[in-house]
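W.,

You were right to be curious about this one. When I first looked at the sequence I had no strong expectations either way, so I just let the prediction run and decided to look at it fresh. Below is the sequence, 223 residues in total, followed by the output.
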Amino acid sequence: MSALNPGVLIPVNPAVEDYMRNLLKHTDHPVLIEMEALARQNNFPIVGRLVGVFLETIAKTINAQRVFEFGSGYGYSAYWFAKAVGQAGQVICSEADLLNKEKAEQYLGSAGLWDRVDFQAGMAQDIFAKTDGLFDICYNDVDKGDYPEIWLMAKDRIRPGGLYIADNVLWRGRVAMENYVDMFQGWTEAIIEHNQLIFDDPDFDTFINPTRDGVIVARKKTA
């Protein structure tokens, strides 16, 4: 358990994460640094540099061209996906807060990535339902109580060989604790249900990367 907060578990030792983060100095970009500073200043949840590089790498590995994000904040994860899909690709973002859309346009525009992004303001579930076609990646980072619903919506809209990815699936270790204090009532139970649904689905190969707060990656099997 964390010495600062005995109610949570830290999946990866902070010293190890610091070492890995120091290896990524070549990824520094003025826009990226500014986005990370804003997150620290406002205590805004972003995936952070280690997970961001992981998202970009795994998206490139499957040659992703079409990505849907459930919950985009002000575009931090979209930054990495937009880099991965290239000029011909598209990242469809969904975000309930219109102010975050404005920030995303500023940041991603400055990074030369805005033309690869379709950023829509509104409930992620509603936007997804109105968007046609299959996706190479469906990425989930909405309110954690909605995680099981998002999985059930997304899993049939991922092409064979494509990926479902979700952040915060270890929820500061609460998923592995018998006694925990939840941030929001029912969220830990929802994440546990979400994770079990995915691992039990015979159409997907699934694992969890424990970096930061845990990232689940489920690959839809091919015929």
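Here's what jumped out at me. Helices lie at 14-22, 30-42, 48-61, 76-85, 98-110, 124-129, 147-154, 187-200. And, maybe more interesting for your project: The mean pLDDT is 94.

Coffee later to discuss?

I.
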